[in-house]
Amino acid sequence: MSFSNSASFLCLLAFSLLAHTVLGADPLFHFCSTPENFTANGPYEVNLNKLTGYLYYQTPPTGFGQGSIGQYPDQTYGLALCRGDASSSDCKTCVVDAGSEIRKRCPYNKAAIIWYDNCLLKYSNDGFFGQIDNRNKFYMWNVKVVSEPATFNGKTKELLTQLANKVEATPKLYATGEMELGESTKLYGLVQCTRDLSSAVCKKCIDGIIGELPSCCDGKEGGRVVSGSCNFRYEIYPFVNA
């Protein structure tokens, strides 16, 4: 997949936002994010191999890792982020799979990013730490539409905005929550940022993608906006009062 300045759009039919396992462990999406290539077995590839190995080791204990290896013009920057509720074991498996798979899909690109349900991995020859990445982005949504879209859209935005305020105060830049929509339905939400961002920049990133709700998921029972720096997901589900 070549780089695009606009969001790419995916429709995932009947996906479950609450799943805690990766079924089939297939990537959600990826971008080979630059036309610049490196030479096989050259200094950039050597540095990239060292960086991905470092991320395999650094990421699982806390769910986040970042680093830079080498000197200009062969310096490479990278990070990996696991979903906030992923175990260390699942995190490690995901990051290792991501590092292997992205090199198959973008074998000589100096910059690339790949997302799985449990993690993302990103690297580049340009320093990007602390900056919001809106260039690498995709949407996912459930094809089912609610009966009252306008009311539901307002509730979804309200919940995600609450989580954006909450995430700013959490060290992991990860927050979840839910809202009752009626006697038998709840709305679940999740927001998360890569931890190279400050808390204030994280909130700015989340606020920005919340603004894309009408483009992504108007009236849909579930949806996600996923960028290289932050993401949200929401889904409605039934429940029974005790």
TrEMBL record:
Principal localisation: secreted
Pfam families reported for this sequence: Stress-antifung (PF01657)
Keywords (A to Z) from UniProt: Repeat, Secreted, Signal
CC terms in the record's Gene Ontology section: extracellular region
Subcellular localization, as worded in the UniProt entry: Secreted
Record keyword Nucleotide-binding present: no
Segments forming domain Gnk2-homologous: 26-128, 134-239
Keyword Secreted: yes
Signal peptide feature range: 1-24
Transmembrane segments: none
The family this protein is said to belong to: Belongs to the cysteine-rich repeat secretory protein family.
Protein name as annotated: Gnk2-homologous domain-containing protein
